[in-house]
Amino acid sequence: MTPEQQLEHLVGDASEVHSREELLDRLKLGRPLRIKYGADPSAPDLHLGHSVPMMRLRRFQDMGHKVIFIIGDFTGRIGDPSGRSKTRPMLSSEDIERNAATFAEQAGKILDIDACEIRYNSEWLDNLGSRGLIELAARYTVARMLERDDFATRMRSETPISIVEFLYPLVQAYDSVAVEADVEVGGTDQLFNFLVGRDIMRAYGMAPQVAATWTLLVGTDGTEKMSKSLGNYVGIAEPPGEMFGKLMSIPDVVLPHYYALLTDVGFDGAEQIERQMQSGELHPMEAKKRLASTIVARYHDPDAARRAQEEFEAVFSKGELPSDMPEHRIRRSDLEDGRIWIVKLVADCGGASSNSEARRLIRQGGVRLNDQRIQDETANVEVNGGDVLQVGRRHFAKIVVE
After folding, report:
1. CATH class label, 3-214
2. What is d(CA 243, CA 225) in angstroms, rounded to the nearest whole number?
3. CB-count burial class (<10 Å; 0-12, 13-18, 19+) for 295
4. Contact, 390 vs 402, CB < 8 A?
5. What pLDDT was estimated at residue 75?
6. What is the domain class of 327-401 according to CATH?
7. pLDDT (tens digit, 9 = 90+) per residue, 68-104?
8. Where are the domain boundaries for CATH 3.40.50.620 in the chain?
9. Residue 341 forms beta bridges with which residues?
């Protein structure tokens, strides 16, 4: 490819690039570029939202460039304020260590992880010290920091902003100095941080990195960005059936968005799919099955995708029970006259993350025991071995009483 063709291949579908001219100039140098990607281990698993920039990182890798994968074990203690309406609780060292342990393994489903340079930003930020941190802070102004939309919004609403949140973009920017980044890749919510990185690199006498961002993936609810904390995510390490079922639950209107960001059809192909659905040439259900199969095959294999589709069609189209349900064991001594509180049963079976969520699901009619809907959150239900609990459309559990 010519440098111009490389530019189009690498960032042609990017939301913003600062700047394309700078990236083209670096591509013309004919040397491997250093491509930075950072992820704070705020949760143990990666989801399809993370895969959007990672798939673009793989393009850089495939063209011979070096991906610097930074695990933010230092910045994770602060918490990224991007898009936040309040101060984020700091993670403990134990949480960070536990979450970081799975990052490289899961990232390897997308990247050539052996070819990545994996770094932990505590390597340089722990050694920065108070003098270094003060010198870093002296290179940026409060006025520039308040240009950030979420900070400005919180100032207007008199919502507290901690000083440590001002430090986050600075220490993330210092990561770019430490690894001598040519390009930083991420979601659009990271643009401010990336631009601070450009300024800080200049302040340290370095050529500024190119900042390339891509549209954030909308979650399975079709409204908020994909996030584990919102429960609207599809994990890239989830079992094939769970992954397939979640993708089948997305609203029809976001199908083109998913195709554009998660498959190889690109924005032009996604627009064509949208036109086919609008004309009736392609039914949204078939479009979802095609999408779900493509993604499951990518993170598992084609056979797993085929089995997941067959299972989905058997359960949701034909009304059959899943062939492989997780078991939930209950000690007979924990039952009172053979009964258990329905809220406890739903939560203990993993159908809800808390009693309050279980109550909500029951009230909304999303809970069935042996195909009988239960909407009384105060009910003590009789359970026997072999009973089947269903929560929502996808979560099933077979009761074992011992």
Report:
1. alpha beta
2. 17
3. buried
4. no
5. 85
6. alpha beta
7. 999 988 887 776 666 554 555 666 777 777 777 788 8
8. 3-214
9. 380
